[in-house]
Amino acid sequence: MRNERDISPAAPASKQGVGARVPRKEDDRLMRGRGQFVGDIRLTGLQDVAFVRSPLAHARIRAIHIPERYRDVVFTSADLIGIKPIRAITGLAGFKPSDQPILATDKIRQVGELVAMCVAPTRAEAEDIAASVTLDLEELPAVYDMLKAREPGAPLVHEHWGDNVFLESFFELDITKALDAPIKVTREISTARQCMSPLEGRGVIATFDHRLDQLTLYTGSQMPHIVRNGLSDCLEMDQGQIRIVSPDVGGGFGHKGILLPEEVCLSWLTMKRGFPVRWIEDRREHLVASSNCREHHYKITVYADRDGTLRGIDCEATVDSGAYSSYPFSACLEAAQVVSILPGPYQMPAYRCRTYSVATNKCPILPYRGVARTGVCFALELMLDLVAAEAGLEPGDVRLRNLVRPEQMPFDNITKKHFDSGDYPEALRRAVAQIDIQGIRARQRKGEDDGRLIGVGLSIYCEQAAHGTSVYSGWGIPMVPGHEQATARLTPDGGLELKVGVHSHGQGLETTLSQVAFELLGVDVGKIRVVHGDTAMTPYSTGTWGSRCMVMAGGAVATACHELGERAKKIGAKLLQVDEANVVLVDGEIRGPNGSVTLKEIAHTWYRRPQDLPGDVDPGGLEATSGYKPQRDSGTFSYAAHAVTVAVDPDLGDVEILDYVIVEDGGVLVNPMIVDGQIYGGLAQGIGTALYEEMPFDRAGQPLNTTLADYLLPGPTEVPAPWLDHMETPSPYTKFGVKGIGEGGAIAPPAAIGNAVNDALRGLGVEMLQSPITPRRVLEGILAARDAERTAV
Amino acid sequence: MKPAPFAYERPRDIASALAVMASTDGVVKIMAGGQSLGPMLNLRLVAPDTIVDITGLAELKHVEVTGDELVIGACVTHADIEDGRIPDVTRGAMQRVASAIAYRAVRNRGTVGGSLSHADPSADWVSTFAALGATLSLRSAKGARRVAMKDFMLGALESVLQPREMLEAVRVPVMSASARWGYVKSCRKTGEFAHAIGAVLIDPEAGKARVVIGAVEAAPIIVESAEELFGGRITSDFGTKFDARVADNLLSKAGMSDAADRHIHVTVLRRAVAEAAA
Question: What is the pLDDT at residue A15?
Fold first, then answer.
């Protein structure tokens, strides 16, 4: 493995502002073990909750037997009077809504579904009580396979629907024009169900404050304000009676963007019993009962000319949405996204796609970093390599022939996605050069001394980020982002407080938002505090999702700081006894023609010595809340080209990554070091999708990999140090030209690695079209190909 | 994931450990490092009434070379072996095996005796000690006995250990100067339990070979006289004589019906032989 590129900082535009590699402020506490996560919070009288969960995937509840001695510490749906189920609808035509019970009522629809809640002084005792509760269940045939679920006569997850389809989506443009193409490649491609596996699982503490007449819910959440919306609906409480606090959070990835039945349960329980209650998700609950994602199936045909020019794509995609539509993203975001994003950054004259969001007896599918893009990228990019093989062309050349070109920007693609800026071919060319495809081809011809097979793979994707009102109002889900708000406040000692409704849980926003404020006000990053994760202290926001924070919260902080600067200028001009038009804000001070006054002095005067201000000073003060939207809210498009070299052991099926190259364009980077970190983390997760992570189910709907001994995650020895290169094409629509980049690292690796493995195996006539590409699948493919060859002879 | 309630005993020496077990009712489990037992307790896969924790017993950390044997106390950790804190009678073989067990954190606490007593087919020591021809010393209140490693394990998580009997020591023969050792395992990632293990001890001068095929979801397959895998005789060019078809037949006969499984095990065994021949 080649070493990663030297990351010594290039000369930044300013010491601490946009573009500087400022070390992460939050690391001071996190790296010293001083973070405060939900599990670290201690409240007087706190009791622990353990849940009785369904052991079956699909069953009718005949009875729940609670030992007499535990009657007052075990609660079932019969106790939750007046509590409404979780309901996440969409505005898409034909969508069938589901009601997710807080505790199961008459029927169970997934293994791990909550049936009863047990409370005790310790978790161990609560688990003892849970173990004493017995369930009398009538097992029903399980819907365990999303393709079979669509067949007539399949058992029904929600009987009153009449079928198992949440939603069918469709798009077509001129597909008949593609049908006479000389190259036509058809395959079935699929991605496994995964679990998101952040280091910290979910965790909830609920307590009620009678002085404030307020429920306080401590919950590791990416979107505290959205949790408040959902809880208010389920509990039928005023929003003012609910406060959500999301403290330090150990990774979200989408898992912590969801309203949990557990959050509703504990809120009810603390109000019922009068003491604080806690539930900390354990790893088994995480794997069995929650956080599932990624399960896609594609039947896809790509039409092309002999020179590799794309003529069209025809696809039928199915997403296993699980039993319920989760709040707020719904059961359909994923499959409906597939329709609109499958063409990716490529031009084509014809396209048809039909997708099904299918209900099964599994956990609800949740949007995991990259959401539908990882599956889409895997399907499309694998297909492009197969087209290249069919045409006898280098995969890179086929891509270059079809990628949107820089002179076409801004560009509306076939599904009317609006690409704001970028040079996709250049990213690909750099990746191809850096991985040295010609060198690898020569090495392949020579063969390896150890008998392994070498392969090289490419993939490229685009990541629509920070898409706003116009996009989400179209989905019609319970959450539509509007103007993002931020508050900026100078403290009496000249420090700066920023308040934002988004949440930082690994993104380094406490640092990058401070850098934005430094850029506007010149306040030292060390003197800036970013307040987030508390509905009582921050402006409303849909929160952290969709790689939106740098664009939206960054833009809002810039806008609020600008407003604050204008206020400071008014006061500063008075102190300098000059006209406001004659002062400027530079490097943290207001400068006039004959002198200057620092923001610190202005703050001191405003708060502590108002007697020094003239009577006609502007009364606005030094606290400003302001809102922001980009000029266009259809989203920024960041992208990257990934290139990877692998070695495949044909006798064991093992895949080793030898070299990994990423050429990434995220627009203007506020902190390139943090972006590098985002890409490393995403790459690790992408390698997990590609090679390791899988949650299989048996025919009874039982999840099979229920511990981390079975559910494999890549570790330090499985994740290489990639060679990283940044291009920085500004977005024309956003403050500073920034783009969202949070998810990209996790999108491209399965496709690049899949292509590399298939390149290595091409001589054996073996194709891997299913993630993860396990040694077992590789070996079975090779043995089957050998058998077929023998039979043919 | 919290264990069901249990009583916890931490005796001072072997005698009191045996006495505690003899006088305790219900199901007793010995803990000797807890690297497998801990998770199993938390998952409530086991729910003993009493745990007798012998991890701290000095007598069980004792190591000595006696005659042509190395006697390793049951509570010697994998890290003790990895770091060379015990005498080496296998020319580095045990040290290399130890250094690749799970992760360092597991090796710091996990013990040789705990691993053997747990009898997980995928664990390294059950195959390694079988290939090395080790003998185990067992002890209970009724007395002591010795069992050859090849006879110790009966199946997955199943051994000849009786309730309230403990493994006291492992006796490893000093490896002869002419013996060749090979050990290969297949894992999907570093630290994962093995999907296939091949362990071979081959002495071309003596014309002897012992071959172990491990991680077979049962007790390892031990071939005490492995001549047939090498064309009927063990010679100095054994590395070129390995017969994969014989190995494949052996696995078929042992009930391994899946062709890919057999292919993986035969591959790993062939590589272990190649390592021994190198």
Answer: 87
Q: What per-residue confidence (pLDDT) applies to A789?
A: 86
Are A676 and A787 in a shared domain?
Answer: yes
Residues A326 and A342 in one domain: yes
Q: What is the pLDDT of residues A512-556, one digit of tens each?
A: 999 999 999 999 999 999 999 999 999 999 999 999 999 999 999
If you measure CA to CA, which chain B residue comes closest to A784? B260
Q: Which residues of A378-390 are buried (b: 16+ CB within 10 A; e: fewer)?
A: bbbbbbbbbbbbb
Residues of A in Cβ contact (< 8 Å) with B192? 709, 712
B8 in contact with A, Cβ within 8 Å: no
Same domain, A517 and A577: yes
B188–A692 C-beta distance less than 8 A: yes
Chain A residue with CA closest to B36: the answer is A709
Q: What is the pLDDT of chain A when averaged over all its residues? A: 96
Kindly report, residue by residue over B120-139, the tens digit of the pLDDT. 999 999 999 999 999 999 99
- The answer to whether the CB of A227 falls within 8 A of the CB of A421 is no
Global pTM? 0.97
Statement to judge: residues A653 and A761 lie in one domain: yes
| pLDDT at position A8 | 45
Which chain B residues touch A776 with a CB distance below 8 Å? 260
- Does A686 have pLDDT greater than 70? yes
Residue A341, min C-alpha distance to chain B (Å): 33
Probe site for chain B from A51, A286, A450, A651 (most B CB atoms < 10 A): A651
| Contact residues on chain A for B39, CB-CB shorter than 8 A | 707, 709
A391-394: long-range contacts at Cβ-Cβ below 8 A with a sequence spacing of 24 or more?
A391/A183, A391/A304, A391/A306, A391/A307, A391/A308, A393/A307, A393/A308, A394/A437
- Interchain CB distance below 8 Å, A284 and B43: yes
Substitution target from A52, A53, A127 for chain B, most B beta carbons within 10 A: A127
Three-class SS of A649-693:
CCCCCCEEEEEEEEEEECECCCCHHHHHHHHHHHHHHHHHHHHHC
- A221: confidence class by pLDDT, cuts 50, 70, 90: very high
Interface residue B258 vs chain A (CB under 8 A): no
Counting beta carbons within 10 angstroms of the beta carbon of residue A707, is it exposed (0 to 12), middle (13 to 18) or buried (19 or more)? middle
- Give contacts of A282 with chain B, Cβ < 8 Å: 1
What ipTM score was computed for the predicted complex, to two decimals? Answer: 0.96
Domain residue limits at B256: 180-277
Confidence (pLDDT) at A6:
44
Q: Give how many domains chain B has, as a whole number.
A: 3
Quick one: A620 and A557 in the same domain?
yes
pLDDT value of position A42 = 96
